[in-house]
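ok trying this again, last paste got cut off
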Amino acid sequence: HTLATQDHDNMPQVSIWDGVVMGGGVGLSLHGKYRVCTEHTLFAKPETAIGLFPDVGGMWWLSRMKGGLGNYIALTGQRLKADDLLYAGLATHYVPSDKLEELKSALIAATDTDDDWK
């Protein structure tokens, strides 16, 4: 609940999806303001494919997806790659995996001030 209701303007959460993102990891990271995928991202809610319901707020975001896409994912457990995630609005940004270290450094530099630790 805290992740979903945090003040994203004053404390933005950046989730970097560079590989398999499934189950609870999806639920925890989807509430963040920034969700970065790469060419290696494989995203799914596999519990839905075997008839279980999604956890960690999965029902909330699946039910709010446009065009019935959430229903499709919930009924099939379909796995999504980077282009699918961007189209669906689940990922907010795409960064090639070989540029992730630059992204991480830029994020650290943008938030690295002495005032943060006082």
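PB: full thing came through this time. Residues 106 and 112 are 10 Å apart (CA to CA).
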